[in-house]
TrEMBL record:
Family per similarity comment: Belongs to the SMC family. SMC6 subfamily.
Protein name: Structural maintenance of chromosomes protein 6
Gene: si:dkey-119f1.1
One GO molecular-function entry: single-stranded DNA binding
Keyword Zinc-finger: no
UniProt feature, compositional bias: Acidic residues: 21-33
Places the protein is found: Chromosome; Nucleus
Gene Ontology CC: nucleus; site of double-strand break; Smc5-Smc6 complex
Organism (species): Scophthalmus maximus
Length: 923
């Protein structure tokens, strides 16, 4: 085979195309010829391959022959057409890279193709007009850029995606060998001896191969999607967990809102409580009147106490004297004993107030034991109070912190179903500190008790208590199911306009604790009334408060509707807020106990001295002792009661003296500041009106409300620190909810899509198999028809399972049994059979134009003529489709027709291009 060489750059200008036609080239085409959209109207090449300038070539709408000898540029036109319409370098079989198409010595190559854009299949005719111009530039580096212009030359787009849309609209398939069949593609597929290659050619031409690849890709994508769905299901579980956590934090904001609402309400009430100066004055007067009454009572009780004490001492002395006197005569003979008796009498006379020193030894021991127990108990109370300065929990017992730590550790280990709560007194607080003693007497043992949800938890808690409390009394355990909401007590609770119930007086954060006290003590039905007289009058009246079965005064007195009991307890041990005052009282009591112990010890020593000094008179003294013992005990009890009453009165007197002095100072200060307070009152009223225009009736003191406001602020601040910023919590919850919903919906859509895809793919595969069978049958039919035009017979056998195509041809009229493989045919016969095969594929595929490069190179004159007539006949029957044939033949024997256009290329000048790098493609 010969090779053609390109001319030099300087002579490329003279090497131009001379379009010729068998008839007048400018003659108008037949009006009945309808050209489809997407055909090639013209093509121009600049610095492409070895050509400086080729074109512009103007193609006819039906049959076009590009005629020229080797090296004239026929294959360059076909290669430019493939590359300009998006094909890669490998598809041209002319190189492995685009930069190889740039002419040697030039920086870039340009190709311009004009596509017809008419008819119903036109692409954006309102934008491009009746033609679309595709300009391609290839740089020396191998970069490819596009410019898509309208018919007027205006640039519409520079994106390859737009070009792909245009090609899809026109159904132009540059990689389809039926649309553009190059020499190399023809050699590989058509002239190959392998049956598998012919089958591949059939599959590629009919786009069945592309469909099969798409199916494989879809199936692979489906498997990948299923794997991702499986992974996303795991992620969805984690996402759901995070969403639930965000939801819990979001729901906890509701309690925070309630606290904010309560705080705002308290602040409104506080605003109106701050200006109550008149009420403070009234309260001072009431306290002063009460103080005067108590002072008068103390003054009345003091003479009575002194008289009782004197009478008791005198009575005891007389009895002792009478008991000793009968024995005095019997022992008077002994002078020393007489002196001793005189000494005893004198001692009794001088120290008659210390009656206990003449008590019998058994009395000494009992009193010593009682005193020692009181001293020990007092010491323990003092230690507890002093340790509770830094830790309020120690008020409930020195082992209580250790017990709570053990409970916390057991809960962390999962030993409890629900963590026990306690001590209950530690989990409540008073709104009004003055009611501490009343509430403490009311609740009694419940203050140190613990509550459990179930009996299994109770057993675990008992084990912990046994380990912590090695000796002594353990706290009570109350077992009751934990409920998240507070009991509805509206029907059973007492509701008095002036006096609160125990439930109303307490601040209880945990509903479980409140429910426990309601169930165990009925705190919703117990009133707290500060004045005992008012309490007795209210409860013993004809119409006691509804739902109220008992009340407690500020002193701890318990008043029922038909009886009342005084409290044994004089101060609050657990709920009082003034620890220092309690410590002072305990220390005073300790001093009194130590003094009594000293007096008792002194009396006992005197008794021992007397017994050892007068041993002969022991029996007589024993008689005296036994008589005195019978009289001493009741007198001692009376004296103790009198002394206790006197101590209590002194304590009350001192207490009220202190309060009286304090209140007198407060009254003086209030009177001095009354004028300024009146002005402040007006200011406060104005400010309160600004905060809350509607005046509120405030029943609580400003101090208690201020304490509750501060507590609420601390609680709100703590909860906000734990939860974070409110807006951030809401934002995170909404984002988590949205993400969870979106992913859930995506998973649902993906599962639905996969299910639908299975159904669609099964249907498509059935359609694919049916389409393949149908196209195979049509290809056989047209192949037989084409062969019959020359009198040939043949057969096409498709084996879709093994992917082979066997073609058998019998030249001339003969027996079909004599059909032979194409490999046994002559070159011309084989080329003719190949043309029939190509034409049969043309008949079953769609494309706006067909291009064949040197289709007749292996044919003799007879087969060339027959093949040409067949192709022209096919073209005449498809006037809407364009055909471009590249051939080195002169085509002088073509019939005269208006649908045929011949483009003759000038022969190359071979004398000026001898460099091997400028060689053109093989013929």
């Amino acid at each position: 085979m010969s090779k053609r060489k390109s001319s030099s750059v300087s002579e490329n200008v003279n090497k131009r195309v001379r379009p010729e036609q068998e008839e007048d080239g400018e003659e108008e085409e037949d009006e009945n010829v309808v050209s489809d959209a997407g055909i090639v109207e013209s093509i121009t090449l600049k610095n492409f391959m070895c050509h400086s300038l080729l074109g512009p070539f103007t193609f006819g709408s039906n049959v076009n022959f590009v005629v020229g000898n080797n090296g004239s540029g026929k294959s360059a036109v076909l290669t430019a057409l493939i590359v300009a319409l998006g094909g890669n370098a490998q598809a041209t079989n002319r190189g492995s890279s685009l930069k190889g198409f740039v002419k040697e010595g030039e920086s870039s190559a340009d190709v311009s193709i004009t596509l017809r854009n008419k008819g119903r299949d036109a692409y954006k005719p309102e934008v491009y007009g009746q033609a679309i111009i595709v300009d391609l530039r290839i740089t020396r580096e191998g970069l490819r850029t596009y410019k898509l212009r309208s018919k007027s030359g205006q640039i519409v787009s520079t994106k390859k995606e737009e070009l792909i849309s245009i090609l899809d609209n026109f159904n132009i398939q540059v990689n389809n060998p039926v649309s553009i069949l190059t020499q190399e593609m023809s050699k590989y597929f058509l002239h190959s001896k392998g049956e598998g290659d012919k089958y591949k050619f059939f599959m590629k031409a009919t786009q069945l191969e592309q469909m099969r690849e798409d199916f494989v890709y879809i199936r692979t994508t489906k498997h990948v999607t299923e794997d991702k769905v499986e992974q996303q299901n795991e992620c969805l579980k984690d996402l759901r967990q995070r969403y639930k956590e965000k939801e819990e934090r979001y729901k906890s904001l509701a309690s925070l809102d309630e606290m904010h609402t309560k705080l705002a309400e308290l602040q409104k009430q506080m605003a109106w409580a701050l200006h109550k100066v008149e009420e403070a004055e009234k309260k001072c007067k009431q306290i002063q009147e009460q103080l005067e009454g108590i002072t008068q009572q103390v003054q009345e009780l003091q003479p009575k106490c002194a008289e009782l004490k004197t009478q008791a001492q005198r009575h005891v002395f007389n009895i002792l004297y009478l008991c000793i006197n009968p024995h005095f005569l019997s022992i008077s003979r002994t002078h020393s004993f007489a002196v001793a008796i005189a000494f005893v009498v004198s001692v009794m006379s001088s120290r008659s107030s210390n009656i206990t020193k003449w008590a019998p030894p058994s009395i000494f021991r009992r009193e010593q034991e009682v005193l020692q127990r009181s001293i020990d108990s007092n010491r323990r109370n003092l230690q507890t109070l002093e340790s509770s300065r830094s830790n309020r929990l120690r008020r409930f017992g020195e082992h209580m912190p250790a017990l709570l730590s053990a409970i916390q550790e057991a809960h962390r280990r999962g030993q409890f179903k629900h963590k026990p709560l306690g001590p209950l007194g530690y989990l409540i607080s008073l709104k009004d500190p003055e009611l501490a003693l009343a509430v403490e007497v009311c609740l009694k043992g419940q203050l140190q008790a613990f509550t459990c949800d179930n009996y299994e938890d109770e057993k675990v808690l008992q084990g912990l208590m046994a380990r912590v409390f090695t000796g002594g009394r353990r706290p009570t355990i109350i077992t009751s199911q934990f409920l998240p909401r507070l009991h509805d007590t509206r029907k059973k609770a007492v509701n008095h306009p002036e006096y609160p119930s125990v439930l109303q007086a307490l601040e209880i954060e945990d509903s479980v604790v409140a429910n426990c006290l309601i169930d165990q003590r009925g705190i919703e039905s117990i009133l707290l009334i500060k004045n005992r007289t008012v309490a007795r009058r209210l409860m013993h009246g004809k119409n006691p408060p509804q739902n109220c079965f008992q009340a407690f005064s500020i002193e701890g007195d318990q008043i029922f509707t038909n009886r009342a009991y005084s409290a044994d307890q004089t101060r609050a041990n657990y709920l009082s807020g003034d620890v220092e005052e309690e410590i002072r009282c305990v220390r005073v009591r300790a001093c009194e106990l130590r003094m009594n112990q000293h007096l008792l010890l002194t009396s006992w020593c005197c008794s021992v001295i007397i017994s050892s000094t007068f041993p002969p008179y022991g029996p007589h003294l024993e008689v005296v002792e036994s008589i005195a013992c019978c009289l001493f005990v009741p007198l001692q009890e009376d004296l103790n009661k009198a002394e206790q009453e006197m101590i209590k009165c002194k304590h009350h007197k001192k207490h009220y003296d202190d309060k009286r002095s304090t209140h007198l100072r407060n009254i003086q200060s209030l009177e001095a500041d009354l004028g300024s307070k009146e002005q402040e009152l007006q200011t406060s009223v104005s400010k309160a009106t600004e905060i809350c225009p509607e005046r509120l009736e405030v029943r609580r003191s400003a101090r208690s409300m201020d304490s509750e406001i501060n507590r609420l602020k601390v609680k709100i601040s703590t909860q906000q620190e734990q939860q974070g910023d409110r807006e951030e919590v809401v934002k995170q919850y909404q984002e988590a909810l949205e993400t969870y919903k979106n992913l859930t919906q995506q998973m649902k859509n993906l599962n639905s899509f996969i299910k639908s895809l299975d159904s669609v793919m099964n249907h498509r595969l059935q359609v694919y198999a049916e389409l393949r069978r149908f196209l195979s049958a049509r290809c056989k039919y047209y192949f037989d028809s084409m062969l019959a035009q020359r009198g040939y017979t043949g057969n096409m056998a498709f084996d879709h399972k093994n992917e082979t195509l066997s073609i058998s041809v019998q030249p001339g009229q003969g027996n079909k049994a004599d059909l032979s493989d194409m490999r046994s045919l002559s070159g011309g016969e084989r080329s003719f059979s190949t043309v029939c095969f190509v034409l049969s594929l043309w008949a079953i595929t769609e494309a706006p134009f067909r291009c064949l490069d040197e289709f007749d190179v292996y044919m003799d004159m007879v087969n060339r003529r027959i093949s040409m007539d067949m192709m022209l006949k096919v073209a005449a029957g498809q006037r809407y489709r364009q055909f471009i044939f590249l051939t080195p033949q002169s085509m002088g024997t073509l019939p005269v027709s208006k649908i045929i256009r011949i483009l003759r290329l000038k022969d190359p000048d071979r004398g000026q291009n001898n460099a091997p790098t400028n060689q053109d493609e093989d013929q």
